[in-house]
Every structure is written in structure tokens, then in C-alpha cells.
Design goal:
alpha/beta, Elongation Factor Tu (Ef-tu), domain 3, eight-stranded parallel barrel, 25 helices, about 25% strand, globular, Pept_U32_collagenase, Peptidase_U32, RNA/ubiquinone_mod_enzymes
Length: about 850
């Protein structure tokens, strides 16, 4: 409870992005409390400039001198072959003095907790945590902060905050991912650039058509735009007081790929908004936190139009920027006329030389940089709203065409000026006290906000013959702090009248005091101790691995079949399935399992000696978690507890809250990418663990040494799960709970510019699930997979017909059975592949089995 009270008393933290040192300085000089940035390795923005160790050390020193914290992103999935480099990197970060690391990989989190718990850890939004249950699990892992999923509402934030002592961080401004972060494999599957490895190609910003199974473009008449997966930018500037009220501590601005001027402008404006919250609370006033002109600056520096995301409700189409996936600028006016190399514009906003403007014509968009401006035939340096001005223009534009300002030269100049080298303004106030008597060395006490130091003069003070030491002269000398991060706010002087001290002594006292103030005072784990901890961790990992290998003989290699409804379950059993995963998402396109049907299915499977597992949904919000908890408590009373496959950390925590010994398995959505993650879930009691579908065959072979590994070898590859539904938003009037449910009337697909049709499914909670065009098929690789020692292969058949399920299960069962060591005879894949091709005419992909994402 004390921790909860302490958390509520914490001031809001403004957290800025920095993809370069310039952007870092822009953030610090414009008032941020903390900066998050990435190193050259292990960062989710691999294409940003990022920081090498020397630059990082320089940045940390600069930030700490100004009482700004630095958080370093290590927020990707790490492969086993990278752990050696990672171990060195983590110690370097600790030695440099970073304030925290931001993590996605649960194996890395467990590693840090064991080898260097002195390094504070924050859970990245890539961990897909949006419930109090998930936060509770992270707390047990040693995290001090969690970055909540962007889909978390204000009401859910409040519930989470009331139940945890962890700091909560949320995004408040910048680009939105349309998918739940950490659950998007779209860029990975389409082009091999994985968001979980920091190389997302942003296919969500491309054009798509919404079509049905008759290949009809369902939005052809609406003319809303073709960027059906491109959201607007988040802007919660006017919600900051509410965020503070519900218990959020850190306000995160997205933008490590943005230029320094963007960072400077956004951070300056959010700093002003946060400061005004305090002013309003003191005066009991209620007013907008930013003026209209300041809101205009936020728009001007970059926007795809703004939204408050899921903060209040699901906004449907109002979340999206269908017509444009990049900066749209601000409305400047309309073309009045065009003639003789000049263009007249009726202005709705101001215009200056150097501004970038864009014309939206019937033929597309054309951009120019403004040179000379004329008003009433006279050259001018500014055009004002309401005026009609002329500019040089050699393109084609028509009267009435809209004009937008995409770059404001004066705003950019103001931003650049704020972080210009040698013009640093962010400094900390000092109080100094100079005391002493004639014949003694003078004492100078210097007090900053966090430390106090004391130094003495080199020589004793003497009685002055001509020029005694005055207050003004002492202040003048002691305030010469130059490029240091300090300024002299107050000087107290308690010395004998008429004494003197050489100016060189005063200057030296000042220098020594500042030098002492800037010294690092924190405790650092020495490298030898760190190496010893690492060796103990490696020995423990090897012991767990070797101990587990002996258990593999107890696990019979099997074919798992994941199905989502009773009819396909019966088809799987009819085909001889000996292990079935039932449940998962409840599609609106078909009838799913009720709780009673799940119970009945377990009883039927037990009679047939079939291993049955209840597979839980990939994503749940707070209310849905409570509903599932009720069902799990009912299931706990069954004669035999059902085995559960968890898909997120919240579900695992719920299960353990009911019965810590409840048998469970781990699904692929928990991104088990390395031995550390695998060992973590094994230690918690996981009986089987489905490995990440982004693993290369060599990585799979390494992890297959462990017992209970499951690999998806056939079926639908889910690329994305989102609270946004393109069908409901464009056809069903989706907003909040309101929707016409068009998703139940026919099948839907998103067609990309290459004419590939990606299947869309909507679950009972109105989430959109986007699937790959082609079916994953590793039938031809089964012999290789069997030789790896993989315990179980899975057929992911949650959208298939009963006939497709029955034929697929029969083929894979026969092949897997033939490949058992004890079996004689030679298996070939030719006949099976021909039959699979006839069942699934859409074609196949090998996924990442050969290419991987490293």
C-alpha cells in the first residue's frame, strides 16, 4: 500500500524519443524528463541512426548533468547466437549508467534479473500487456515499469493502476500501429522484415481494397481512400490531466525515426501542457492545456490527422487516415488563379519564404518550396490569413485546388535554434555559500538539487589593502559557469568585512566544486563479479537443458490439430487425430465452442485416449479477462482439470491465481524465440511450448533439444490482430459498441497492390484478424523436422472446413507415423503434396523455415 501511495504522488514524466544525438539534445533542451533511445544493436528501430557506446556515454553524461533520465531500448526478440554479444552489451549499459532498459523478450528479462538485477527493467509495449493480470505477472519478473498496449482505455488504465505498484507508461503522441504491438507478423511474412526484430517495413501504410469472395471492391463507390490499414497519429495533449488522474506516470512520445525539429517542437508543447496542469490545479481553473496556435504547431510539425486512439472508445473509421499515410500538413488556402509563371493563393494561414506547400489537384499532389512572395504586386516577406498572395510556380494547378503547408520554415528555425550547439539553455540552479575569516582558508559550499559539495581556498584570506572582496564581485566570479549545466541562482556570503582573496583562488574553488558536483556517485557492479554471475547463469541454463533432455523420452511425438468449432473437432478425431487444441478465437463466421461443449469435448477425447487442450484467445481486455476468469473457475471444479494453452501473460497469471499446479502449455503468440524464454516457461511448469513462427530451421533444431517443443508446420499464418475492423469501420458504421455486423454476411479480404487477397476474420469481440494469402506448408520438411527432435508438430486449422481438416490430419498423421524411428519403409512427400495442393488451391509458403528474420 505504501508503494501505491508513493506512486500516486509521482509527478508526470515526459518521455521523449531520440533516434540521433541531435534529436536527443532537442528533447533535453525543450524540457523532457527522460529520453528513450536505441543502441546500434537490439533496437526496435534498426533503421534510425541510433547510438554507439561512445555516443551513448556522451548522451547519458549530458542528460544526467541536467537531471534527465536515459532509457535504452533492447526491445526485440533475441536469438540464442546473439546472447554472447548481449551479455557484453548489458554490462556496458550498466557501466555507462543508463537508468533503465526497455525489453520485449521475456528470456532477456529473466536473464537480467539473474545476472544484473541492479539494471532497472521496463516492459515494452511489444510485450502486449493490457490487463491487470499481465501487469501482475511482469511485477513478479522484477520489472519496475510497464508500457501498456496502445489499445488500453482510460478506464482500464485506472483499474490497472489501482492494483499495481509498478510505474505505468503510455504513448500520448505520434504514430500508431494498427495491430497489437508484438503480435504483428505482416511485414515479417510478406517481406522478411520483422517488427519483432526492429525492421518493420510498415505494409499497413500501403493501399488495399476491401473485397468479398466474388472479388468485388466493396468500397468502390465510397471514395474514402485506399489506405485501409493506416491509422491517424495519436494526440492526447488535452487528456494529460485525465491520464494523471487515472494513475499514469510516464507520457511517451513516439518518434525515434523523426527529425530533431519534430522532437523539439512536440516536446516543447507537451512540456507546456504538463506545466499548465499544475497551474490549473493550484487555481482550480479548467481550460485547454494548449492554445489554438499551439495545437496548430502540433499539426504543422507532422500529422496524418489526429485521433485520441482507444482512450475513450473504439472510434472505427475516425481512427483512420484512409486518404493519406504520411504527413498531410495544415490547410493553407485555395488556388485563386495561375498565370505567367505565378500562382495566386487565397490564404487561410500564414505563408513565408522557405515554407513547403502542396497542391491537392484532381491529378494528384504536387509539392514546392516557396521562394518569393508578392502581395498586391509588391514583394513581401509574409502572407497573412485572408490575403491573396502570389508565388513563383511553374507547375499545373487549377482555380479552387486546395493548398496545404507541409513545412513551416519559421517553426523549423525556432526548433533548430533551441538545440543549437553552444546555445544550451537547460541548466540547474545552484545555491552557494561563501564563508570564513581573515587568516583562514575560505569555505565554499555549493548546493544543487540532489547534492552538496564543500571546497576550500588554496590560500588564507587576507585583509585588503586596496580592493576588498565584495558580494557583487564574488557573485560575478562564482557565476561564471560557462558551458556547465548550472547557473548561480543564489549566493550567501558570511565573511569578515574588508578581506580579500586572489581571483585565481575564487575561480579554482568554483572549478573544483563543479567538478565534484558532476562526479558519478552511483554503485557499479565490477566486471569480475558480473562475469561470475554470468558463468553461474550459464551453468544453470546448461543444467536445466541437460536435465530436460532426459525427459524427452517420456513425451510421445505427436501431431497437434488446432480447431475452433465442434464440427472441425469431429473431423480431426475422425481422421485419427490424437492431440487436439480446441477453442482459441471465436469467429463470427462460424459457431464456436461453448464452455459446456469444451467440457464435453474433453470427456469425449479422454474416452478415445486423445490429448485435448483448451486453447485460450490471443488477446483479451480487462473485462474479457474477468469473464474468462469466471469460466476458468468453473473448469477448475470439473472432475479433471482441462489442460490449458495460454496465449498471453495475463492468462497465465489468471491460471496460477486459481491453482498454481494447473497443467498448462504456451502458444506461439508469447514469442518464444530463444532458450532463455523456453527455460522460463518450463520453470513455471509449461508442459509444451509452441515456438515462434519466425524461427529459422537452425534455430528450431537448437531449441528442439528441450522436451515439449511444438512447431507449427501447416495451416493459416495469422499476420495481425487489431481492435480496428476494416469491415465494421467502412461498411458497418462501427463506433464504440455500435456495428451493423457486416462481417457475418459474407467473407472478406484485403487486396494489396500486387493483387494478393489476404483473408479477414472477425472474432466475437469485434477484433480483426488478418491472415496470410498462402497456407504454411512444411509437409516436405517433415523428415528434417523429425530428425531435429521436435516433440510435436501442429496443424493450425482454425478457419478450415471439416473436409479440409479431415484430409489434412489424415495426411500428416500418416507421414509423421511413417517417420517414427521404429517404423520401416520409405516415406516420400510427392503424393501427399499433390493431395494438399488440390485441397488448398490458394498455394503454399515455407514461412520462415529457410529464410528466418535475423
Amino acid at each position: 500500500m505504501d508503494k501505491l501511495k508513493r506512486k500516486k504522488a509521482l509527478p508526470l514524466e515526459l518521455l521523449a524519443p531520440a533516434g540521433s544525438y541531435e534529436a536527443f539534445k532537442a528533447a533535453v533542451e525543450n524540457g523532457t524528463d527522460a529520453v528513450y533511445l536505441g543502441g546500434k544493436s537490439f533496437s526496435a528501430r534498426a533503421s534510425a541512426a541510433n547510438f554507439d557506446l561512445e555516443e551513448l556515454q556522451k548522451a547519458v553524461r549530458y542528460a544526467h548533468e541536467r537531471q534527465v533520465k536515459v532509457y535504452v531500448t533492447v526491445n526485440i526478440l533475441i536469438s540464442d547466437q546473439e546472447f554472447s554479444e548481449l551479455l557484453n552489451y548489458l554490462y556496458d549499459l550498466h557501466e555507462i549508467g543508463v537508468d533503465a532498459v526497455i525489453l520485449q523478450d521475456i528470456g532477456v528479462a529473466e536473464l537480467i534479473h539473474r545476472i544484473i538485477p541492479e539494471l532497472e527493467t521496463h516492459a515494452s509495449t511489444q510485450m502486449t500487456v493490457n490487463t491487470s493480470w499481465g501487469v501482475r505477472h511482469l511485477e513478479s519478473l522484477g520489472f519496475s515499469r510497464v508500457v501498456l498496449a496502445r489499445e488500453t482505455s482510460a478506464a482500464e488504465m485506472k483499474t490497472i493502476a489501482e492494483g499495481t505498484a509498478l510505474d505505468l507508461e503510455v504513448f500520448v503522441h505520434g504514430a500508431l500501429c494498427i495491430s497489437y504491438s508484438g503480435q504483428c507478423l505482416m511485414s515479417s511474412f510478406i517481406g522478411g522484415r520483422s517488427g519483432n526484430r526492429g525492421t518493420c517495413a510498415q505494409p499497413c501504410r500501403m493501399t488495399y481494397q476491401l473485397i468479398n469472395d466474388k472479388k468485388q471492391n466493396l468500397l468502390a463507390e465510397q471514395n474514402i481512400g485506399d489506405h485501409l490499414l493506416s491509422p491517424r497519429d495519436l494526440n492526447l495533449a488535452e487528456e494529460l490531466a485525465e491520464l494523471k488522474r487515472v494513475g499514469i506516470h510516464s507520457l511517451k512520445v513516439e518518434g525515434r525515426m523523426k527529425r530533431p525539429e519534430y522532437v523539439a517542437t512536440v516536446i516543447r508543447l507537451y512540456r507546456q501542457a504538463i506545466d499548465r496542469i499544475e497551474d490549473q490545479q493550484e487555481s482550480n481553473a479548467v481550460a485547454p492545456l494548449l492554445t489554438p496556435a499551439e495545437h496548430q504547431e502540433l499539426l504543422q510539425v507532422f500529422n496524418r490527422d489526429f485521433t485520441n486512439g482507444y482512450f475513450r472508445e473504439n472510434l472505427g473509421a475516425e481512427l483512420m487516415s484512409y486518404s493519406r499515410p504520411n504527413n498531410r500538413g495544415t490547410r493553407l488556402g485555395r488556388v485563386a488563379r495561375s498565370e505567367r509563371g505565378r500562382l495566386s493563393i487565397k490564404l487561410e494561414g500564414s505563408l513565408h519564404p522557405g515554407d513547403g506547400i502542396e497542391f491537392w489537384t484532381g491529378r494528384g499532389r504536387e509539392g514546392v518550396t516557396v521562394g518569393l512572395i508578392w502581395g498586391n504586386g509588391i514583394e513581401t516577406t509574409e502572407g497573412l490569413p485572408g490575403e491573396t498572395v502570389e508565388i513563383e510556380f511553374s507547375g499545373i494547378a487549377q482555380q479552387g485546388d486546395r493548398v496545404f503547408k507541409t513545412n513551416d520554415a519559421l517553426l523549423m528555425e525556432r526548433a533548430r535554434h533551441s538545440f543549437q550547439e553552444g546555445r544550451e539553455q537547460r541548466k540547474n540552479p545552484l545555491t552557494m555559500r561563501l564563508s570564513g575569516h581573515a587568516g583562514e582558508k575560505l569555505c565554499l559550499e555549493v548546493m544543487g538539487s540532489q547534492r552538496k559539495v564543500t571546497v576550500h581556498s588554496a590560500s588564507p584570506a587576507q585583509m585588503a589593502m586596496k580592493r576588498p572582496l565584495t558580494f557583487d564581485y564574488a557573485f560575478q566570479q562564482l557565476s561564471r559557469l560557462g558551458t556547465t549545466p548550472f547557473w548561480l541562482d543564489k549566493l550567501e556570503m558570511e565573511t569578515d568585512e574588508g578581506i580579500m582573496l586572489p581571483v585565481s583562488d575564487l575561480n579554482e574553488m568554483r572549478r573544483l566544486a563543479i567538478e565534484e558536483l558532476l562526479k558519478q556517485t552511483r554503485q557499479i557492479v565490477d566486471r569480475q563479479t558480473y562475469r561470475q554471475r554470468v558463468e553461474r547463469w550459464k551453468e544453470g541454463q546448461a543444467f536445466e537443458r541437460n536435465s530436460s533432455i532426459g525427459l524427452k523420452k517420456d513425451i510421445l511425438p505427436q501431431v497437434s490439430v488446432a480447431v475452433s468449432d465442434p464440427l472441425t473437432l469431429q473431423a480431426a478425431l475422425k481422421a485419427g487425430g490424437k492431440r487436439v487444441l480446441i477453442g482459441g478465437e471465436h469467429w463470427r463466421s462460424r459457431r464456436s465452442f461453448s464452455l459446456e461443449e469444451i467440457r464435453g469435448s474433453f470427456l469425449d477425447c479422454r474416452k478415445q485416449k486423445v490429448d485435448c487442450v483448451w486453447r485460450l484467445p490471443r488477446v483479451l481486455n480487462e473485462a474479457q479477462s474477468e469473464s474468462l476468469l469466471i469460466d476458468l473457475k468453473k473448469a477448475a471444479e470439473w472432475e479433471v482439470k482441462p489442460k490449458i494453452m495460454v496465449s498471453n501473460l495475463g492468462e497465465l497469471e489468471m491460471l496460477k491465481s486459481i491453482d498454481r499446479e494447473w497443467p498448462f502449455e504456451v502458444d506461439y503468440s508469447l514469442n518464444v524465440f530463444n532458450e532463455g524464454s523456453l527455460a522460463y516457461f518450463r520453470k513455471l511448469g509449461a508442459q509444451r511450448i509452441t515456438l515462434s513462427p519466425e524461427l529459422h530451421h537452425e534455430q528450431l533444431a537448437y531449441l528442439a533439444k528441450w522436451p515439449g517443443t511444438e512447431v507449427i508446420v501447416f495451416g493459416d499464418l495469422e499476420m495481425m490482430v487489431s481492435e480496428y475492423c476494416p469491415v465494421g469501420a467502412t461498411l458497418g458504421g462501427k463506433k464504440g459498441e455500435r456495428c451493423a455486423r457486416n462481417c457475418t454476411k459474407e467473407s472478406h479480404f484485403l487486396r494489396d497492390r500486387m493483387k494478393y487477397d489476404f483473408p479477414v476474420e472477425t472474432d466475437q469481440e469485434c477484433r480483426m484478424h488478418l491472415f496470410n494469402v498462402k497456407i504454411l506448408n512444411l509437409y516436405e520438411e517433415l523428415a528434417q523436422i523429425r530428425r531435429m527432435g521436435v516433440s510435436t508438430v501442429r496443424l493450425q486449422l482454425t478457419r478450415q472446413t471439416p473436409a479440409q481438416v479431415q484430409q489434412s490430419v489424415s495426411l500428416f498423421n500418416e507421414a509423421w507415423d511413417m517417420l517414427q524411428v521404429a517404423k520401416k519403409g520409405k516415406w516420400t512427400s510427392n503424393d501427399g503434396m499433390a493431395e494438399l495442393s488440390s485441397i488448398f488451391p490458394e498455394g503454399f509458403t515455407k514461412g520462415h523455415f529457410f529464410r528466418g528474420v535475423l
